[in-house]
Amino acid sequence: MKRYQVYLNPNSVAILDELGESIDVSRSKLIQSVIDGIAYNAAKIFSAMKIQPKKTSILDSLAGSIKVKGNGKTNFAQNIDEIYLSD
Known about the structure:
This protein has 87 residues and is mainly alpha-helical. It is built from 3 helices and no strands.
């Protein structure tokens, strides 16, 4: 854990102290538990809000943008085995 300094409302601290005494938990443990709970829930919300990837990539817009002179093959990915096994 790393130490942080925060400023708290005195009324909130008094309530935390009363709660801590009644359940025998320190103020710092109460604050850690609350912040951990908020962070956990926020992480769940953020992961649920992730935008699903599009079916197309931004790189797909580049397809065909390069003009090659001649009638030679330009789709080398289809013939990758021929390229690497041509030795």
